[in-house]
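Is this the right way to post structure tokens for a design question? Let me know if I should format differently. Anyway, here goes:
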């Protein structure tokens, strides 16, 4: 499969860089995708899609072994998994425990149900990418807003606003879901 990806890359230096990324991060990317999808075959598809994206953007990566590159690879894999979820709306089981701490006290009973995982994944997958990425990096990767700003090449104030707005969107949708399920 590595040969397929390297055919997408023109320069030898970029191919070597990609091979390092592929070798070093493919398992971590699969685990990240599988944590969203809970399906090993779909996770492989998501990682494949992520690697195609990485191959297309390989020139933007300076050091294939840096933490920034690892975060980029994991984010690409998670986003590809969420995109697959978006295409397969009927998927029931998704392990998204990492996001439980977004809630506030009023919606805690709603989080105790299994359905919240599906609802949360659906809500996240429908969010604009700009908010989804910063929330993922903040919550799952446990990066600071400053680190996210550096990684995404944005101002720290911009990232702060995106985190606030993303959390507000999540909270609003989660509260709507709790009300629809009879919780208050």
């Amino acid at each position: 499969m590595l040969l397929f990806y390297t055919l997408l890359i023109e320069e030898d230096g970029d191919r070597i860089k990609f091979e390092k990324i592929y070798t070093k991060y493919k398992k971590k990317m699969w685990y990240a995708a599988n944590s969203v999808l809970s399906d090993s075959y779909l996770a492989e598809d998501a990682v494949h899609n992520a690697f195609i994206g990485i191959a297309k953007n390989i020139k933007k990566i300076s050091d294939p072994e840096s933490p920034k590159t690892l975060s980029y690879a994991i984010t690409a894999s998670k986003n590809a998994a969420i995109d697959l979820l978006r295409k397969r709306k009927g998927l029931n089981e998704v392990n998204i425990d990492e996001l439980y701490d977004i809630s506030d006290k009023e919606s805690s009973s709603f989080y105790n149900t299994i359905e919240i995982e599906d609802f949360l994944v659906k809500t996240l997958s429908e969010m604009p990418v700009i908010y989804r990425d910063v929330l993922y990096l903040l919550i799952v990767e446990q990066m600071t807003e400053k680190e996210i700003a550096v990684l995404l090449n944005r101002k720290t104030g911009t990232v702060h606003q995106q985190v606030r707005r993303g959390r507000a969107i999540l909270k609003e949708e989660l509260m709507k879901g709790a009300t629809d399920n009879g919780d208050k």
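Format looks fine. Someone answered above. Worth noting: The mean pLDDT is 76. The chain is about 70% helix and 0% strand.
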